[in-house]
Amino acid sequence: MRSVALSLLVLLGAAQASILLPYHMPDELIQLMAFREQPQNAAISVCNDIQFNYCQTHFNQFFGMDDSISWRNGSYIFNTVQNYLMMNVTELVKVCNTRTQFYQCLGSSYYPCMNLYTLLNKPQPDFSNTFDYVRTFRGLEWMCVGGFSEVVAQWSCLATFPTTKAYQNCIGNFNQTVSAANFCPAVAQTGVCLNDAYNAACGPAGAGYFGCENFRITFDNSCWGLRCMVDSQ
Ligand SMILES: *[C@@H]1O[C@H](CO)[C@@H](O)[C@H](O)[C@H]1NC(C)=O
Ligand SMILES: *[C@@H]1O[C@H](CO)[C@@H](O)[C@H](O)[C@H]1NC(C)=O
Ligand SMILES: *[C@@H]1O[C@H](CO)[C@@H](O)[C@H](O)[C@H]1NC(C)=O
């Protein structure tokens, strides 16, 4: 099990500035996450496909993405959104406004649609595209809501951080420790590692909490109850 996770979880290419965190998850662990995200009450958690497509098309327009682009093109959406987030704070705020419109457009379909279990149960899903799709919107949810004032204040440092050795050490350690048998503990440990590393790089006022949550939020539905520590000061 461990060797499978080890051999398939690879850090994406050369380090680039990025607010959506660059790392790769093996299909086995995406499947495990999906299983753990299975909605408790299927009757009240429905992702309405017509509404989903409509809202996605509207979201795509801001980025100049074709109407046909959907959750099936998750890696393309991840990279496109990332490019806008990296332009400047003005563009980041516009992305957040676009994300708010998407969230409001989907209404009660939002969480059922942004769910690995729901999406991977559609015909012929591609695991890594689906994972990239879901983590794009989870990352936006964090930086545009709870982490918004921090990301606006420290945009440059937070965006540059994933290019550092400190980030690569935390993610490399995640790479080596995460497995089906050690999933949430590895997520928690990586959150602590990122907390300390972001604090060291960008100052303790809120950077550590931002960095930990920015990673943890992707696992919010598969590792219930994990929390990042707010620095007391
Ligand atoms: C989007 O995904 C669909 C289905 O996998 C694929 O046929 C299409 O080429 C993709 N579009 C882009 C721009 O990647
Ligand atoms: C932000 O980046 C966009 C795209 O490069 C550019 O058009 C815009 O002028 C920039 N805004 C600021 C305030 O730098
Ligand atoms: C993750 O593990 C794979 C396989 O051992 C390795 O090729 C890759 O370089 C590792 N990535 C990091 C960031 O350690």
UniProtKB/TrEMBL annotation:
This is Secreted protein. Residues 1-17 form the signal peptide. Keywords: Signal. It comes from Caenorhabditis briggsae. It comes from the Eukaryota.
